[in-house]
Specification:
By secondary structure, the protein is α/β, with parallel strands linked by helices. The protein has helices spanning 15-26, 40-46, 58-72, 99-127, 149-169, 193-196, 205-218, 228-238, 240-253; strands at 6-9, 30-35, 49-52, 77-80, 131-136, 174-179, 222-223.
Length: 261
């Protein structure tokens, strides 16, 4: 399905990123995997190429894109997947996280995608063949993550950026998708009771990858590996007060030690 496509994936050493890389590789694409430390063994298993990339650093993002373009051919699909999450302050204050955790969240969860789009969109426009930019946000980007204001805020921003790309550049043949899962098996959620016992399901990375493939085929902007997130989002839009009151009740039932961040 993706034969002759060059796909670049960040945060690909494991979890959702690696699951997506496997899906594209199995469907004929040539894949570039990146992470803070080049995921060499993971790439070799896929017959792919590994790179190091710190998405919070614009020079590093540009270097990854330039190297993948040079080694494999121009990138057709970019998966901006790398992300971080930090909890709120020690007493649960939403602004209680330190400045470094907020800044890192902003740089990785938002600016990493900005840096990549800044490099790729002009290239795609110039070559006249379009491209696809995929951002892994979170259900927290449509709803909220109890216990992490910085995660919620930056993932909302990630959704907004994906929307902006989709709206501004469709005429250029550039498509965008935004992945908004709930809890998925990864290093971020490993051993976290609240994630592993989620009533809406604790999915595998392959489930998210399959949902992305389906969204590309169907030209769906949102990638909802947990379809119930779409229902929650509609409910929130229809009655914001009810949503807030419901989340307050949910928070009161949660043991802070069980939160995934």
């Amino acid at each position: 399905m993706f034969s002759n496509k060059i796909v670049a994936v960040t945060g690909a050493a494991g979890g959702i990123g690696l699951g997506i890389a496997k899906m594209f590789s199995e469907n004929g694409a040539t894949v570039a995997l990146s992470d803070l430390k080049a995921p060499t063994s993971e790439a070799e298993a896929l017959g792919a190429k590994a790179y190091s990339c710190d998405v919070g650093n614009e020079d590093s993002v540009k270097a990854f894109i330039d190297a993948a373009n040079a080694d494999l051919g121009q990138i057709d699909i970019y998966i901006s997947n790398a992300g971080v999450g930090f909890g709120d302050g020690p007493n649960g204050e939403v602004a209680g996280g330190d400045n470094q955790s907020w800044e890192t969240s902003w740089q990785v969860n938002v600016m990493g995608s900005v840096y990549a789009a800044r490099a790729l969109v002009p290239q795609w426009i110039e070559r006249g063949q379009g491209g696809r930019f995929v951002i892994t946000a979170s259900a927290a980007g449509l709803l909220s993550q109890i216990g992490s204001a910085s995660y919620t805020v930056t993932k909302h921003a990630a959704v907004g950026l994906a929307e902006s790309i989709a709206i501004a550049h469709r005429k250029d043949g550039i498509f965008a998708n935004c992945i908004c899962p709930q809890y998925v098996r990864s290093n971020m959620t490993k051993g976290q009771k609240f994630a592993e016992e989620s009533k809406d399901g604790y999915l595998e990375p392959s489930d998210v990858a399959a949902a992305l493939k389906a969204s590309i085929v169907n030209d769906d902007f949102l990638v909802l590996s947990h379809p119930v997130v779409g229902d929650y989002f509609k409910g929130k839009a229809m009655d914001y007060n009810r949503y807030i009151h419901g989340m307050v009740k949910l928070k009161s039932k949660i043991n802070p030690q069980d939160l995934p961040l």
